[in-house]
Structures are given as structure tokens and as C-alpha cells.
Amino acid sequence: MKLTTIEDATKVLKFEIATTYKNRVVGTNSYQITETQWESLSNPAKAALVSRTYNAGNINSGGVDVASAIKTGNLSLAA
User: Fold this and answer.
1) Rounded to whole angstroms, how far apart are CA atoms 32 and 71?
2) 65 to each of 16, 55, 57, how far by Cα in Å?
3) Would you list the DSSP string of the chain?
4) Is there a contact between 70 and 37 (Cβ–Cβ < 8 Å)?
5) What tens digit of pLDDT does each residue of 8-28 get?
6) Which tops the pLDDT comparison, 76 or 8?
7) Residues sharing a CB contact under 8 Å with residue 61, sequence separation 6 or more, in sequence order
């Protein structure tokens, strides 16, 4: 049995973030933000959105419409 190395785990995590989780955040659906909006966010904000998506399934869980807040520039509501 081969153990997973830190390097292998990091590669998988980077792949999952770039494909699975970012694709749940960025897109053309009403519950997503655009690529342009994504690129305008700071890295900590992007990390928070990916984390929320990982833990809750999407960025709009918990009764807060984070996508609309970002689209309208209301980043304090998105936080």
C-alpha cells in the first residue's frame, strides 16, 4: 500500500480547487460570479469563497446571497 505524500496531496488539492470548487463559484448561473468578478477579488477573498463552497456546497448557503453581494459590490455583506 502506497502512502500519500504531502506533495501528492498538494497536487490533488490544487487540481480540485482549480476545477471542482472554482467551477462552483465562477460561471453564468445566478448563484455564481463571473470570471471578471473572481479576478477582481483578493486571494484571501477567493480562498474564503472556495472554502465556503467546499464546506457548504456553494457560496450562497446559509441564507446569504454572496454572489449577488459581490455582483453589486457589497463586499461587506459577502463577508
Assistant:
1) 9
2) 24, 16, 14
3) -PPPPHHHHHHHHHHHIIIIIHHHHBSSSTTSB-HHHHHHS-HHHHHHHHHHHHHHSSTTGGG--HHHHHHTT-HHHH-
4) yes
5) 999 999 999 888 999 999 999
6) 8
7) 52
